[in-house]
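[Solved] Which block belongs to which protein?

Original post:
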Amino acid sequence: MAGKVTYLHGEYTTQIVGCVAHLTIDKRRAKDIKAALGRALTDAEKNSIELELGKINLWRTDPILSVQSIKRTLTAISKLSGKDAEFAYKKCDIHSQGFIRNSLYFYFNEFESWPSGDLISHAATHARANLPKSATGRRTKGYQRMFADYVVSSWQTLGGEKCKAHVQESNLAMATPLVQFGVALFTVVEGELFDSAQAAKFLRAALGRAEIFEKKEKLRKQSKASRDLMKQGI
């Protein structure tokens, strides 16, 4: 497989971190978010979202890193544990880190900036398994997928209600609150008003991935509980 394991090459971290542009949620989008969420963002929430939007935008536009490098990096981190995984997570490229963080937030309900190494390796395994498999349009598809997952994760973290993604006749005024929230964030990154029908499509897919994961995780926990009972001779 081509590409590099980026946490072994410090130049990736230096170049990419220096390229992250600060994106601002302007008054218009802040108003849209308030209408969708039912309240205004706090300064801390706004700053956190703006930082993530800048990182996601880098994934959308940055030509430095290949998809193969991201795959190799996630695969390598998934095989680590403890302090080794923590070190790799801190030192890897921002793209791989973003996919891991996305899995931590959205699928493992972990919101610590620097989680445990074992949790990082599990999230890397999940992120690697769920990277876009299309041979064409990889960067665009990866950006849209990761962004949609982040939008849903943020919506839930912020306490957003009615976690459904629908819109009638591409009319934003007739969209569910989640779609309105998503359009606002997509618009900040794209620099122009994002199509509500497209946003709804991406967000429905993200909700579907979350539902599938929840079912698998429930089965995994049930299986583990059964094995534990068998070991105890119950």
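(Second protein starts here: sequence line, then its structure tokens.)
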Amino acid sequence: MNKLLLPVLVTLACGCGNKKPDGAELASSGAASSLRSASSAAHSTSAGSSPLHVVLESKAALAFAGVAGGVWMGSMAAGRTAQALGAAELESVPIPEGLAPEPAHFVGAYGRLPHSLWISLELEAKGDKNHAVTPLYRVDAKGKLQRIAEDWRPLLSTWSKNRILAMSTSSSRLKVKVVEPHMKDPPPDLPGPKLDDASCAKDLKLFGLAALPSSQVFAAGLCTVSGSASPRYVIIRWAPEARSSAPDQTVTKPQPSASASTTGTAAAAGPDPTDAGTETHDDGLTPGTVFALPGTAGRLSHCSLWANAANDVLAVATDSSAKKGPLARLFHFNGKEWAIVEPPLDQDPAQSAAETTDGAIWLGTAHSLWMRLLAGDWLKIDLPTDRYPDATWELLDVFTQGSDDVWVHARVTAKASTLDVVLRTKAARELVRW
């Protein structure tokens, strides 16, 4: 039995990632203070019957990201970021000096702590409101800030041999590149832009990326596969023959959607980042294998893609075509084929999901948190509701480290009061408040 279950009394908005930008004020200061006062009155950071503890409260919406080696979160409105390395406590600091002199909000962060972080922003629209400008920054281990691209929002994932991989389909073509470290030529295990389904390659749009230390890479998206009249939810797998000797020990977190904007150059953490937006040549590179997932004739909205190993990959989406309303759809890859994982019966769309190293799936739906041990039943996890009496919960992100370190980003609303909160299975010595 997973030790997380011992303290648990068992009793995850339409579409995925229904979030306000981090710069948005969630409530007036007076209303937020009322909710925060109720929070303080509820036995400090005690979670009651819940295994989760509040470790951060924010009056403004925040961006949350699980990365290799820890977690990161930030709010432009609060002027703060915070991160936790592995099992360590959250450390809150001011946003890096020089980051986004223009009004903006955080989109997300990617990379490897305590080394480099790649931070994506979205600037407030000017003129063409249909085009959101998304600059990309890199912060190194010493805190040095570099603006890498003026307008580029690729999918990014840590990969094998301490590399960071970028993929983009915003220019109607699949582009793949190692952005860290800088490489003059593509490595032999780089995923190639060609797919084994030519029809899919014509209109592919990617929304999720997960890469493994074995060099295998998985991507989630929509495309019109051969024999289909409309786009379907697909997973693409690249399994290069030339693999590193490193075992699959690094868990890859779910990645958010790529934007439709790539007017700037992609980048590398090296002396010459200006060539990163160039075309990917497929000379000798591994083509991608397209999997049209079972039971997905309708158009699904991607939520999460999580890879523990080449034979343990989880994909989560929301099906908006169901007669009863949007529903969570889960799929698992065993190294050979994809199978449907039955979701919990709460009639809610999925928001985010993650899997522990011992195979427990944590799923956040619109208003509930669920956990499933291997092939067992879904268990509804109590949230620390005693801290926020009569509040409505919205689950936004779920992230796991190892077998028992679970993080949840949620939004709690009571009347006119709203707070963004971050929960963790490990209690904090001191609650971070923004």
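Accepted answer:
You had them paired correctly. Confirming on the second one: The longest helix spans residues 29-41.
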